[in-house]
Amino acid sequence: ALARSAPIRVAGFEQLGEILTQVDLVIASTSATRPIIRLEEVQRALSARTDRKLMLIDLALPRNIDPALREFPGVSLWSIDDLSQRIEANLRVRAREIPKVEAILAQETTAFMEWYRSRQAILTITQLREHARAIQKSELTRALRRLGQLSDREIRIVEGLAESIVNKLLHQPTVRLKKEACRGNGALYTDALQTLFGLDPGEGHPDD
């Protein structure tokens, strides 16, 4: 049934010699108590092949493939023990990499948590800057009105002075809030800033 539903060719055991001349890989796994693929058969098959190697994989116990083929030119023979040893060797190599992987995971987890905690402070920082800019704009407008007629250059100087003062005043609180947020103290400091400056914690969200 499987042969009819899939592109599989079914052949009798008596055709083994012919099959060996056509394939590149043989996987043997039968309940035979002695080798069913012998050195002589493979030797004849290889004589009919041109520049083609043959890989033999023996998954049976007792062995289905003549162990003498391991030393035969053009043949690569793998037993279930060989495969187990290769798997174990690969697992040992991977095991040696586990500490490196764990270190990378720990580093990236720490970086992610710092980033996530810093985002908790973004809303408060944004609100604080908007609050300061609003005050800057209001006071600058009133100051320019009081100063009377100024040249464009003088206006730019006054505007630059106001902006510089605001930036310098906000720099240290902003840096400190981000650091404390990364340490897990963000809620304490954001609550303090919101209370001191009258910021509304319900306006917006860091993910908006």
Could you walk me through the main structural features you see in this protein, from its secondary elements to its overall organization?
With 208 residues, the protein is mainly alpha-helical. The chain folds into two domains: 2-73, NAD(P)-binding Rossmann-like Domain (Rossmann fold, 3-Layer(aba) Sandwich); 98-197, no CATH class. The chain has six helices and three strands; from the N terminus they run ααβαββααα. Strand 1, helix 3 (39-47) and strand 2 (54-58) form a beta-alpha-beta unit. Helix 4 (80-147) packs antiparallel against helix 5, helix 4 packs parallel to helix 6 and helix 5 (152-182) runs antiparallel to helix 6 (186-197). It starts with a helix and ends in an 11-residue tail after the last helix.
Summarize the biggest pleated sheet.
Answer: 3 strands, parallel
Task: Compute the CA-based radius of gyration.
Answer: 39 Å
- Which stretches are low in confidence, meaning pLDDT under 50 for 5 or more residues running? 204-208
Fraction of residues in helix: 55-70%
Number of alpha- plus pi-helical segments: 6
Measured by DSSP, the beta-strand proportion falls in: 5-15%
Q: How many domains in all?
A: 2
Number of E-type strands: 3
Side-by-side strand order of the widest sheet? 1-2-3
Distance between the termini: 59 Å
Structural class comes to mainly alpha
Average pLDDT score: 86
